Amino acid sequence: MTTSDGPVRGFNQGGVNIFLGIPYAAPPVGNLRWQPPQPVKRWHGVLDATKFANTCPQVTELGAFAGPSSTNEDCLYLNVFTTGNKGKKKPVIVWIHGGGNVDGETNDYDASKLATGGPMGTQAVVVTLNYRLGLFGFLSESHLNSEGHLWGNYGILDQQAVLRWVRRNIASFGGDPTKVALGGQSAGAQDTGANVLSPLARGLFNRAIYQSGPLPSLATAALALSRGNAFAAAANCSNSSCLRKLSAERILQLQGTPNANGPYITGPFVDGSIIPIQPEAAWTSGNYNKMPTMGGRVKDEGNFGISITEYFSGPPQTAITEAQYEANVTNTYGANAAAVLAQYPVGNYGNDPQIAYDRVTTDPGKCQALHVLSLWAPVIPTYSYDFTYQNTPYYFPQMPNVSSPTGHFRALAYHTSDIQFVFKNWHGGNLGVNLDQTSGQPRELQGTEIALSDQLVAAWTNFANTGNPNGTGNSPWPKATTGGPFLQQDIPLASESTTQYRANYKCDFWDPLLSYPM
User: How far apart are CA 180 and CA 300, in angstroms?
Assistant: First the structure.
């Protein structure tokens, strides 16, 4: 296969042509650290594209979600999955992995099924990518910012470099550069929103997929600069040269630990150029790149974070207690804590603090998603979903919870649980093993779960092709009017009204407490 930078040789697996580790930008090392991505130097001979390339530097692995850690900055590579059929060009899906914009990698994202469209969908060309993370990818610092180049959101610029690579090269892989869906899960959904906001990405893609999105707000420029300058001070650096001479290990030492981020992490922020304004200001003014949009969240988003805390609590591991639950709510909601605790008493959840805290940490985000979807729906074709299937295998070890009737942690429809339905056998990082939620024994999707996967793969690929997850028509996934109705992604699929959604996630309670900075 020929690209604009040189020929590549991949391999065929199960009827899917796979090309791994294709460089899309020069290694961001030395003087190119904290610079916009630079062009690849054209190679001679055929590039062996049969193995995943380096993972971007990272230290905080979110339990079993990501890993192993990496200190290798030569990491700007992408992967392509495509069927071998020639003829009509296929739609393209560019997928941004999640991980809080501090960790994650493409290695576990097998896009083979997505490329085939499964038994019900549309064949597609799928591109996955590694991009700069943590302090390497998102850093505002006075000396770096004054160098005369685009600054701060380097990871977003990496993603835009991939989109430009797609525009130049995807036709060679059977893709249609006029049908490009950009999507991602969690941080990948956040970054999708950042690119929808970015004038620099205008025309590079024309569908957006938010899996555990959409985007309600971003960090401010002032906060990012304060944290970035504090990082430079902690590193004992007073100029750009000093910062670029720091070892990757030293930067990661200041960035965080395997358990948690340090105080200097910001993630994507409103810098004024790459990301010009806050999402709320864009969604209400119409100042964004308009295109068909598909988005939603899972039913039990909060259980992912709760499980990470328990994962690092031992050995032996211990579940959240009622006292810890109340302390967490108090620390988070301050003057509103009493109202939150009254709305979510542990007694209403089988005296299980884990389930009560799951609802407290999930429901506000669900209501934020409805708020954003409701702003989009009158302006752009919008398809809203609520992923409610609660028995997906979980890749964390089974952990105890004496308050649970099962005696163990109940993951339910946890954050990241829907990835397995789109990317075959996804299981997080190198330590992740998918386990049945009840037995605690290894298994992958099975039976009717595979049928749900077929339906979601069809929706994702149809959407990339037409801007409509149904392909044509308005069933089974109706177009949203004011944020709903929602496609309830469960076994079987169902429809959920906005009224039902608001009641399920207590949006009448949360709406007055949620703020959307302009």
Answer: 30
**How much is the pLDDT for 10?**
98
Say whether 134 sits in a helix, a strand or coil. Answer: helix
Find the helix or strand (DSSP H, E) in which 19 lies. Answer: strand 16-23
DSSP structure class, residue 311: H
Which strands make up the sheet holding 77-83, listed edge to edge?
11-13, 16-23, 77-83, 125-129, 90-96, 175-185, 207-211, 293-298, 382-387, 486-489, 494-496
Amino acid 87: pLDDT: 80
By DSSP bridging, strand 16-23 and strand 11-13 are antiparallel
Total-model pTM = 0.97
Question: Which stretches does DSSP call E strand in 249-334?
Answer: 293-298
Question: Which residues make Cβ contacts (< 8 Å) with residue 413, sequence separation at least 6?
Answer: 298, 299, 300, 387, 388, 389, 390, 392
Second CATH level (architecture) for the domain 2-291: 3-Layer(aba) Sandwich (3.40)
Which residues sit opposite 486 in a β-bridge? 384, 496
Q: Omega into 316 within 30° of 0, i.e. cis?
A: yes
Which portions of the chain are predicted below pLDDT 70?
Answer: 85
Question: Quick one: CA torsion of 24, 26, 32, 37, rounded to 10 degrees?
Answer: -20
Sequence spans of domains, the chain: 2-291, 295-513
How far is residue 217 CA from its own chain's centroid? 15
Cα separation, 25 vs 37, whole angstroms = 6
Domain 295-513, classified CATH 3.40.50.1820, yes or no? yes
CA–CA distance, 15 with 281 (Å, rounded to integer): 46
pLDDT at 142: 98
Q: Please state, in angstroms and rounded to a whole number, the distance separating the CA atoms of residues 516 and 379.
A: 19
Which tens digits make up the pLDDT trace of 76-117? 999 999 997 678 999 999 999 999 999 999 999 999 999 999
pLDDT at 518: 87
